[in-house]
Design brief:
Number of strands: 26
Distance between the termini: 79 Å
Number of helices: 5
Largest sheet: 14 strands, antiparallel, barrel
CATH topology: Porin
Shape: elongated
Strand content: over 45%
Strand order of the largest sheet: 1-4-5-6-7-11-12-16-17-19-20-23-24-26
CATH architecture: Beta Barrel
Length: 482
């Protein structure tokens, strides 16, 4: 059974090594083109007239069961005694997300804005592992205290997907007067699916007599993979380049309160190319965004099928698939008969989520932001999907045109509380959601992440050049000639 579950996870491995979350930075007014994914409404009346995204990357991995210390990672023989296993009686999950931000551009003025960028995104989700199975997996099924006890795992899911997207952003100012500002934006996306895997093991009843034998009583296995993945006789996956079509959409709203008494003075100079010095500043901002509404149509690969597992003794010592494996599984995987569902459509949903965020300016340059980022699961749907990691965060930060520093404090659905840190120096921004794990080598870490973004704001558009003015009530500017 140890090898059996490793096989279920095997197809997800190509995703984990590829490098969207930029905690503390995405909600910044100075995120520019890098903040369009966070809320597309930010494209309208942005602080930059013209902003180029050169490149960026973000990677995050976490789980709610196994903790490891940075000091132990390089041990030649890492054993279970080096790990911290949580004893909480909850279902165990693991999450991997890796994003590469390609080139992008944003153009903005006081009435509207638009943008375009290219992204490569990768997700891996493992959900529904009960405490007993998680314990057996951690010990490699060599845990005598659990021998000969009967267990049942109601629903275990493994989902992974990799895709590229071309995203187009358009935003418009709906209201800009009497100190109140409201904008709306949409971000349609053309999707190119690169690979996908879906595993669903339900109602699995089993016991473990020893470290080599698993007795299965019942279980239903649904295994699907896209035809970009193929397997050799050793069941090692390989990837071939083919794209599968899909469509996606983001949408958002932003409200800002811009009182007249905090607006900048008319003699303030622009200190960064492309910065709109006449843009009114806000006292507080509230935004709501729906992210990743969409779907990709893959074709199912050669081993895609649904299996019913009957009572059997499975000797997992040696090859994962052998003659003791359940007959339907052995017949498809080892004898290479092919799955009954091969060639059928395989629909995968994007990681749909809701993003509610707010930002308050205590004094010039000093902000506190809050963010509730919630995955939307649609549990009654049988459609395969990857999902986001629900997280609540509060982020104090200081920033101006040239420099910014922030420290997000967050709590995620995995039960992980973290303190992060990040910095922006001119065009370069970088950070992490959990800085304590980097600073303290003996701290047990259940998650880790890092991100970096490089962007280049250019000179103002011609209609902005040479204009100065005093911000008026509602954020309007007197543009009379000197």
């Amino acid at each position: 059974m140890r090898s059996y579950f490793l096989l279920l996870l095997l197809a997800a491995l190509p995703f984990a090594g590829m490098a969207q979350d930029f905690p503390g930075y995405s909600a910044s007014p100075y995120a520019g083109s890098a903040g369009l994914w966070f809320n597309p409404a930010t494209a309208a009346d942005n602080v930059y007239s013209l902003d180029f995204l050169v490149a960026g990357a973000s990677v995050e991995a976490g789980n709610n069961f196994v903790g490891i210390r940075r000091a132990d990672i390089r041990k030649p023989t890492l054993g279970v005694e080096d790990l911290k296993l949580r004893t909480w009686n909850t279902r165990k999950s693991a999450f991997v997300r890796a994003t590469v931000l390609g080139p992008g551009v944003m153009v903005s003025n006081e009435k509207s804005g638009w943008g375009f960028n290219v992204n490569l995104r990768n997700y891996v989700n493992v959900d529904g592992v009960n405490s007993e199975l998680a314990q057996l997996l951690a010990y490699g099924f060599d845990h005598p205290p659990q021998f000969n006890d009967q267990y049942r795992n109601q629903r275990l899911n493994v989902n992974a997907m990799s895709w590229a997207e071309l995203a187009f952003t358009y935003a418009v100012v709906l209201r800009n007067g009497a100190e109140h500002y409201l904008s709306a934006g949409i971000r349609p996306k053309i999707l190119f699916g690169l690979a996908a895997v879906h595993v669903d093991l339900s109602d699995a009843a089993y016991n473990v007599p020893n470290d080599s034998i698993i007795q299965l009583y019942s279980g239903a296995l649904r295994f699907m993979h896209s035809d970009q993945l193929t397997f050799n006789n050793a069941l090692t996956p390989s990837w071939g380049f083919r794209t599968s079509p899909g469509l996606g959409l983001d949408a958002g709203l932003i409200y800002e309160f811009r009182p007249d008494d905090i607006q900048k003075k008319s003699d303030q100079r622009r200190v960064w190319p492309g910065l709109r010095g006449e843009r009114a500043v806000y006292k507080y901002r509230i935004g709501l965004a729906l992210q990743d509404l969409g779907i990709i149509r893959f074709r199912r690969g050669e081993l895609s099928d649904e299996y019913t597992v009957s009572a059997s003794y499975w000797n997992t010592n040696g090859e994962p698939i052998n003659q003791t494996a359940p007959a339907p599984v052995y017949g498809t995987f080892e004898l290479r008969n092919g799955g009954a569902d091969a060639g059928d459509a395989m629909w995968m949903r994007l990681p749909l989520s809701l993003n509610l965020h707010g930002d308050y300016q205590f004094r010039p340059g000093l902000y506190v932001g809050g963010n509730v980022f919630s995955a939307v699961y649609l549990r009654n749907s049988r459609m395969a999907r990857v999902h986001e990691l629900t997280r609540v965060s509060i982020t104090p930060r200081y920033e101006n045109e040239w420099f910014g520093v922030w420290a997000p404090v967050s709590f995620s659905r995995l039960g992980v509380a973290a303190v992060g840190g990040g910095m922006r120096i001119g065009p370069l921004s970088f950070g992490t959601n959990d800085i304590l794990g980097l600073l303290f080598a003996r701290k047990y870490n259940f998650s880790a992440d890092a991100y970096i973004v490089l962007k280049l704001p250019l000179f103002p558009l011609p209609h902005r050049a040479g204009k100065q003015g005093k911000a008026q009530k509602g954020g309007k500017v007197d543009e009379c000639a000197d």
